[in-house]
Design goal:
Blueprint: H1 4-7, H2 12-25, H3 38-47, H4 49-63, H5 83-89, H6 95-102, H7 112-130
């Protein structure tokens, strides 16, 4: 799988930020316990990274971007789509984790730049996971 399909979209500054955050997250036993399973890898191979990225955007817009999420902390399953374990591994699974790990405050709608960052770190993790 060609990493550049996703990573080339990032400028050097954004890529450095994401790599540093992944390095920080790698110190967490919980975050590093997540991996793509065989079915999720098959899904990526069948549908492609662009489709997975589109789904990531849709999931984030629906259950992470709003200012108030009634089931925050419980909205992200752990498997059955490649984006789900990626969200847990990258601490983008809920607004609590987003605030703790990424310093993006709860209680406000996510900006377009914040959504772009979240999608980028999710997709970066997925590409790295598939290529390991």
């Amino acid at each position: 799988m060609d990493e550049r399909t996703i990573i080339d979209k990032l400028n050097n500054k954004d890529l450095t930020i994401i790599e540093n955050k992944i390095k920080e997250l790698s110190k967490s036993t919980f975050r590093t316990s997540f991996h793509l399973n065989k079915k999720e890898i098959e899904y990526i191979n069948k549908n492609g990274l662009n489709k997975v990225e589109q789904h990531a955007y849709e999931f984030i817009k629906k259950n992470l971007a709003p200012s108030n999420i009634p089931n925050d902390g419980k909205q992200t399953p752990t498997h059955n789509h490649p984006v789900f374990p990626a969200r847990h591994a990258t601490a983008t699974c809920c607004r609590g984790c987003l605030e703790k790990w990424h310093h993006i405050k709860k209680g406000k709608e996510l900006t377009d730049n914040e959504i772009k960052y979240i999608i980028s770190i999710i997709m970066y993790w997925i590409v790295k996971e598939v290529n390991k």
